[in-house]
Amino acid sequence: MFALKKFDLSFAYAIWAGLGIFGVSIIGIMYFKEPYNILKIVSLLVIVVGVIGLNLSEILAN
Question: How far apart are the C-alpha atoms of 50 and 62, rounded to whole Å?
């Protein structure tokens, strides 16, 4: 609950969900040899950019 004192719940949830999706996808590609293509890689990069954008928006708002 400490994080919720500093961040909004929606902000914290979006970051954990985004990083979780990214992490599981990378593990699937690297360790389980799941097929990947340029669309999958670009989509993962969009998730990372979105998480960075959320962090920056929170910093700029304060």
Answer: 19
